[in-house]
Specification:
InterPro entries: ArsI/CadI-like, Cadmium-induced_rsp, Glyas_Bleomycin-R_OHBP_Dase, Glyas_Fos-R_dOase_dom, VOC_core
Distance between the termini: 38 Å
Number of domains: 1
Structural class: alpha+beta
Radius of gyration: 16 Å
CATH class: Alpha Beta
Strand order of the largest sheet: 2-3-4-1-5-8-7-6
CATH topology: 2,3-Dihydroxybiphenyl 1,2-Dioxygenase, domain 1
Number of strands: 8
Keywords: Dioxygenase, Oxidoreductase
Pfam families: Glyoxalase
Protein name: Glyoxalase/bleomycin resistance protein/dioxygenase
Helix content: 10-25%
GO molecular function, one term: dioxygenase activity
Length: 158
């Protein structure tokens, strides 16, 4: 069964842990000096917060976490059907977890990841070069989501 994933950048980790613990009625399942995660069943979500980049506040990226290689192959097929550029990161370490993952951005630059967690890590991890996902609306401040160059100015509105 798939699990929805949301990663939010926060300014004050302790205050945010207190807030979200109250909101969810549960303590985080993972807590680090710069990161916390709730693996909730109701709603079924992997909700993470971090203060890796003090400038990055708000939703950093969203995604789908799967429980098996078969589900991951299914979701990877959906990424291909979405017709956007896909970054196939493969085996990686991110957010204190070892995962197999790929990334895609929607037409407005919202970054999505599809991943299978395969174990824990003692380090936060690194991000690959996600420039191929860049769009005029993509964020350049997300933690383990694509770091993209600022888009060139466009003429006109909207």
């Amino acid at each position: 069964m798939k699990r929805f994933h949301v990663h939010v950048g926060v300014a004050d980790l302790d205050a945010s842990i207190a807030f979200y613990s109250g909101l969810f009625g549960a303590e985080p399942t993972v807590t680090k000096a710069d990161y916390a995660k709730w693996m909730l069943e109701d709603p079924r979500i992997n909700f993470a917060i971090s203060c890796k980049d003090r400038a990055a506040k708000g939703i950093e990226h969203i995604g789908l976490q799967v429980e098996s290689a078969g589900e991951l192959a299914e979701v990877y097929g959906r990424l291909a059907n979405a017709k956007g550029p896909v970054i196939e990161e493969g085996a990686t370490t991110c957010c204190y977890a070892k995962s197999e993952k790929s990334w895609i951005a929607d037409p407005d630059g919202v970054i999505w990841e599809a991943f299978l967690t395969e174990g824990e890590s003692t380090v936060y991890g690194e991000s690959p070069d996600f420039a191929p996902l860049a769009s005029a609306h993509a964020s350049d401040t997300a933690c383990c989501a694509p770091k993209v160059a600022a888009p060139a100015a466009k003429a006109g509105c909207c």
